[in-house]
Amino acid sequence: MRQKWPIQTGSVGLGAKRAMTRPRFTGCFGVEPPDSTLPRSASPARQRHRGERIEGTTKSGRSRTVSLDEETLKILRAHRTKQNAEKLELGEAWRGGSEGHMFSTAWGEPIHPDTASSLVPRLIQRHNEPKEGVHPDPFPHARLHDLRHVHATILLLAGVPVHVVAARLGHADPSITLSVYAHVVSEQLAEAADVFAREIEKAG
Protein backbone atom coordinates (compact mmCIF):
# COMPACT_ATOMS: atom_id res chain seq x y z
CA MET A 1 0.00 0.00 0.00
CA ARG A 2 1.37 3.37 -0.95
CA GLN A 3 1.66 5.96 1.76
CA LYS A 4 2.56 9.59 1.06
CA TRP A 5 4.67 11.78 3.29
CA PRO A 6 4.26 15.54 2.70
CA ILE A 7 7.82 16.69 3.26
CA GLN A 8 9.27 20.16 2.66
CA THR A 9 12.80 20.10 1.25
CA GLY A 10 13.61 23.77 0.88
CA SER A 11 10.76 25.10 -1.24
CA VAL A 12 9.92 21.68 -2.60
CA GLY A 13 7.10 19.57 -1.17
CA LEU A 14 7.28 15.95 -2.18
CA GLY A 15 5.05 12.92 -1.63
CA ALA A 16 7.38 10.00 -1.04
CA LYS A 17 6.78 6.34 -0.61
CA ARG A 18 7.19 5.12 2.95
CA ALA A 19 9.43 2.25 2.03
CA MET A 20 11.85 4.36 0.03
CA THR A 21 15.45 3.84 1.02
CA ARG A 22 17.99 4.97 -1.53
CA PRO A 23 21.78 4.97 -1.55
CA ARG A 24 23.47 7.65 -3.64
CA PHE A 25 21.68 6.89 -6.89
CA THR A 26 24.70 6.46 -9.11
CA GLY A 27 25.46 3.23 -7.29
CA CYS A 28 22.04 1.83 -6.51
CA PHE A 29 21.88 -0.37 -9.60
CA GLY A 30 24.84 -2.45 -8.47
CA VAL A 31 23.01 -4.32 -5.71
CA GLU A 32 23.88 -7.97 -6.11
CA PRO A 33 22.21 -10.21 -3.50
CA PRO A 34 23.55 -13.79 -3.42
CA ASP A 35 20.14 -15.38 -4.06
CA SER A 36 16.41 -14.77 -4.09
CA THR A 37 16.20 -14.91 -0.29
CA LEU A 38 17.86 -11.48 -0.11
CA PRO A 39 19.68 -10.17 2.95
CA ARG A 40 18.25 -7.39 5.13
CA SER A 41 20.76 -5.00 3.60
CA ALA A 42 22.28 -3.89 0.31
CA SER A 43 25.64 -2.42 -0.64
CA PRO A 44 25.93 0.02 -3.56
CA ALA A 45 29.06 -0.79 -5.51
CA ARG A 46 28.64 0.23 -9.16
CA GLN A 47 28.87 3.81 -10.37
CA ARG A 48 29.09 5.80 -13.58
CA HIS A 49 31.77 8.42 -14.12
CA ARG A 50 32.05 10.37 -17.36
CA GLY A 51 30.01 7.76 -19.16
CA GLU A 52 32.10 4.83 -17.97
CA ARG A 53 31.00 2.20 -15.47
CA ILE A 54 33.20 1.95 -12.40
CA GLU A 55 33.18 -1.03 -10.06
CA GLY A 56 34.34 -0.59 -6.49
CA THR A 57 33.39 1.00 -3.20
CA THR A 58 31.89 4.42 -2.54
CA LYS A 59 33.74 7.60 -3.43
CA SER A 60 35.18 7.73 0.10
CA GLY A 61 36.76 4.32 -0.45
CA ARG A 62 34.60 2.68 2.18
CA SER A 63 32.01 0.00 1.69
CA ARG A 64 28.52 0.92 2.92
CA THR A 65 25.63 -1.30 3.89
CA VAL A 66 22.08 0.08 3.98
CA SER A 67 19.44 -1.87 5.89
CA LEU A 68 16.04 -2.35 4.27
CA ASP A 69 12.58 -2.78 5.75
CA GLU A 70 10.58 -5.97 5.25
CA GLU A 71 8.07 -4.38 2.84
CA THR A 72 10.86 -3.27 0.52
CA LEU A 73 12.48 -6.69 0.74
CA LYS A 74 9.18 -8.32 -0.22
CA ILE A 75 9.03 -6.16 -3.35
CA LEU A 76 12.66 -6.93 -4.20
CA ARG A 77 12.13 -10.66 -3.75
CA ALA A 78 9.19 -10.59 -6.15
CA HIS A 79 11.29 -8.59 -8.62
CA ARG A 80 14.17 -11.06 -8.29
CA THR A 81 11.88 -14.02 -8.90
CA LYS A 82 10.56 -12.40 -12.07
CA GLN A 83 14.08 -11.54 -13.17
CA ASN A 84 15.27 -15.13 -12.67
CA ALA A 85 12.41 -16.36 -14.84
CA GLU A 86 13.42 -13.92 -17.59
CA LYS A 87 17.03 -15.07 -17.23
CA LEU A 88 16.04 -18.71 -17.79
CA GLU A 89 13.94 -17.74 -20.79
CA LEU A 90 16.82 -15.87 -22.43
CA GLY A 91 19.35 -18.60 -21.78
CA GLU A 92 22.74 -17.82 -23.31
CA ALA A 93 21.50 -14.41 -24.44
CA TRP A 94 21.51 -13.26 -20.79
CA ARG A 95 24.42 -10.86 -20.22
CA GLY A 96 24.20 -10.45 -16.46
CA GLY A 97 26.42 -13.30 -15.36
CA SER A 98 25.49 -15.92 -12.77
CA GLU A 99 24.41 -13.43 -10.11
CA GLY A 100 23.49 -10.33 -12.10
CA HIS A 101 22.42 -6.90 -10.97
CA MET A 102 19.24 -6.45 -9.00
CA PHE A 103 18.19 -3.76 -11.50
CA SER A 104 19.18 -4.35 -15.08
CA THR A 105 18.11 -4.14 -18.69
CA ALA A 106 16.01 -6.93 -20.18
CA TRP A 107 19.32 -8.58 -21.20
CA GLY A 108 20.85 -8.40 -17.71
CA GLU A 109 23.17 -5.48 -18.34
CA PRO A 110 23.53 -2.62 -15.79
CA ILE A 111 21.07 0.24 -16.14
CA HIS A 112 22.60 3.64 -16.79
CA PRO A 113 21.80 6.05 -13.90
CA ASP A 114 20.34 8.58 -16.34
CA THR A 115 17.57 6.07 -17.08
CA ALA A 116 16.22 6.32 -13.54
CA SER A 117 16.83 10.08 -13.39
CA SER A 118 14.71 10.68 -16.49
CA LEU A 119 12.01 8.33 -15.21
CA VAL A 120 11.13 10.43 -12.16
CA PRO A 121 9.84 13.50 -14.08
CA ARG A 122 7.76 11.21 -16.30
CA LEU A 123 6.21 9.49 -13.28
CA ILE A 124 5.36 12.84 -11.72
CA GLN A 125 3.83 14.04 -14.98
CA ARG A 126 1.77 10.86 -15.24
CA HIS A 127 0.51 11.28 -11.68
CA ASN A 128 -0.44 14.94 -12.26
CA GLU A 129 -2.50 14.21 -15.37
CA PRO A 130 -6.30 14.26 -14.81
CA LYS A 131 -7.88 10.81 -14.80
CA GLU A 132 -11.53 10.50 -15.79
CA GLY A 133 -12.05 14.18 -15.09
CA VAL A 134 -10.52 13.95 -11.61
CA HIS A 135 -7.53 16.18 -10.86
CA PRO A 136 -5.16 14.55 -8.34
CA ASP A 137 -3.17 16.49 -5.77
CA PRO A 138 -0.22 17.47 -7.96
CA PHE A 139 3.34 16.50 -7.17
CA PRO A 140 5.88 19.30 -7.74
CA HIS A 141 8.95 18.92 -9.91
CA ALA A 142 11.55 16.73 -8.23
CA ARG A 143 14.75 14.90 -9.06
CA LEU A 144 15.58 11.32 -8.19
CA HIS A 145 18.27 12.60 -5.83
CA ASP A 146 15.62 14.55 -3.90
CA LEU A 147 14.34 11.22 -2.56
CA ARG A 148 17.61 10.91 -0.67
CA HIS A 149 16.88 14.20 1.10
CA VAL A 150 13.28 13.18 1.75
CA HIS A 151 14.49 9.94 3.29
CA ALA A 152 16.90 11.73 5.62
CA THR A 153 14.31 14.35 6.57
CA ILE A 154 11.70 11.71 7.45
CA LEU A 155 14.17 9.86 9.68
CA LEU A 156 15.35 12.99 11.48
CA LEU A 157 11.81 14.24 12.10
CA ALA A 158 10.93 10.78 13.42
CA GLY A 159 13.67 11.12 16.01
CA VAL A 160 16.25 8.74 14.52
CA PRO A 161 19.69 9.68 15.92
CA VAL A 162 21.81 11.84 13.65
CA HIS A 163 24.71 9.37 13.62
CA VAL A 164 22.37 6.62 12.36
CA VAL A 165 21.03 8.85 9.57
CA ALA A 166 24.60 9.85 8.70
CA ALA A 167 25.58 6.19 8.34
CA ARG A 168 22.65 5.52 5.98
CA LEU A 169 23.57 8.51 3.85
CA GLY A 170 27.24 7.57 3.76
CA HIS A 171 28.43 10.69 5.57
CA ALA A 172 31.80 9.97 7.18
CA ASP A 173 31.09 12.49 9.94
CA PRO A 174 27.64 13.19 11.51
CA SER A 175 28.58 16.88 11.50
CA ILE A 176 28.07 16.81 7.72
CA THR A 177 24.51 15.58 8.25
CA LEU A 178 23.94 18.24 10.92
CA SER A 179 25.12 20.92 8.50
CA VAL A 180 23.05 19.75 5.51
CA TYR A 181 19.89 19.20 7.55
CA ALA A 182 20.31 22.05 10.03
CA HIS A 183 16.74 23.24 9.39
CA VAL A 184 15.34 19.85 10.39
CA VAL A 185 17.50 19.67 13.52
CA SER A 186 16.31 23.17 14.47
CA GLU A 187 12.71 21.94 14.37
CA GLN A 188 13.67 19.07 16.67
CA LEU A 189 15.35 21.45 19.12
CA ALA A 190 12.17 23.51 19.31
CA GLU A 191 10.12 20.36 19.85
CA ALA A 192 12.54 19.21 22.56
CA ALA A 193 11.84 22.40 24.50
CA ASP A 194 8.10 21.68 24.33
CA VAL A 195 8.65 18.09 25.46
CA PHE A 196 10.71 19.27 28.43
CA ALA A 197 8.03 21.79 29.43
CA ARG A 198 5.31 19.13 29.28
CA GLU A 199 7.33 16.71 31.40
CA ILE A 200 7.97 19.38 34.03
CA GLU A 201 4.27 20.21 34.08
CA LYS A 202 3.40 16.52 34.60
CA ALA A 203 5.92 16.25 37.43
CA GLY A 204 4.39 19.28 39.13
From TrEMBL:
Keywords from the named record: DNA recombination
Protein name from the UniProt record: Tyr recombinase domain-containing protein
Chain positions covered by the region annotation Disordered: 29-66
PROSITE patterns attached to this UniProt entry: TYR_RECOMBINASE
InterPro entries referenced in this protein's UniProt entry, alphabetically: DNA_brk_join_enz, Integrase-like_cat_sf, Integrase_catalytic
Stretches assigned to the Tyr recombinase domain: 1-194
Comp. bias intervals (Polar residues): 57-66
Keyword flag Acyltransferase: no
Record bears the keyword Phosphoprotein: no
Native organism: Actinocorallia aurantiaca
